[in-house]
Amino acid sequence: MGGDPRGAYGFRLVPTHDLELPDLVGVEAGAEAVALECRHATALVDRLELTEESIVASSRESSLIAVHRDPLSITLALPNPTTPEELVHPVLTMPISILARWRGDLTLHAGCFYAGDRAWGVMGPREAGKSTMLANLAEREVPLLADDLLVFDQGFVHPGPSCIDLRPDVAERMPEARFLGEINDRARYRLTTPPPPSRPRLGGFFFLSWGEEERVEVTRMEASEALRVLYEQEYIGLLGPADPLKILDLLGTPMWRVERPADWRFTEETLDRILEAAAAGAVTG
């Protein structure tokens, strides 16, 4: 790929074949290059090999993923034809998380947006509406840095692909969302989002939940509860938990609980409250 280096999560992705990957973001000139090879093939055996230099995982009659450390590379053998959009997300998410952990980064299962010159993580349990909230922020031209993998180190976030995936009921409210087809046995729509800045400083986190009352509540979490949530949201993958000190380093990073009713009528108010808290946190942080 010519021009400025492109990639995701602070890595420059270099396909070994003539393959254009959409929605990649600009990375720093000195970003480590990752050779990416994707083959249409089926794994013959179940396999899991973990060493300090490589990880190889496969499922019989399914896919194989191999990640190597020196030189950095990702090799994929996939039994079904795979589009470039599907490669960018979700296929590459797990192998890139391995590279990020090897680099020393902390990885969380979270989305992220950019406001007030800071990056803000968005977390919550399954079906908490994270992608919907992020898509609505993108509709306001708020740049996103992550859909469901947040990678950061020493207080700075490495942006992922500039896109987010949506369920059909959410996508129908987003005119710019495009249908990708059936991926992982569900219909997937994709919204390309405004380009993010390179490696902004982390400002804090928002934890989404549903409430029974017809009002939006945004409250600051106590440090003990915030740390528990961070541990629960760690993106572990095949490497197991990270050094716990990396999460303890976040002690004092602000986290707000956002509780709102499961009703589209409260979407705009929720967005306003989140952006107000981010603006205030950026000033005091």
Indicate the topology.
Layout: E1 6-8, E2 11-15, E3 25-26, E4 33-40, E5 47-50, E6 54-58, E7 64-69, E8 72-78, H1 84-91, H2 93-103, E9 106-108, E10 111-115, E11 118-123, H3 130-139, E12 144-146, E13 150-153, E14 156-158, E15 163-166, H4 168-171, E16 178-183, E17 186-192, E18 202-210, E19 217-220, H5 223-232, H6 244-248, E20 255-260, H7 267-284
Which CATH class of the largest domain is shown?
Alpha Beta
Low-confidence stretches: none
- DSSP helix count? 7
**What percent of residues are in strands?**
35-45%
Largest beta-sheet details: 8 strands, mixed
Tell me, briefly, the overall form. Answer: globular
- Strand arrangement, major sheet: 3-1-2-4-8-7-6-5
CATH architecture of the largest domain: 3-Layer(aba) Sandwich
What is the typical, i.e. mean, pLDDT? Answer: 93
How many discrete structural domains?
A: 2
- Gap between N and C termini: 38 Å
The Cα radius of gyration reads 19 Å
Order of helices and strands: EEEEEEEEHHEEEHEEEEHEEEEHHEH
Residues in helix, % = 10-25%
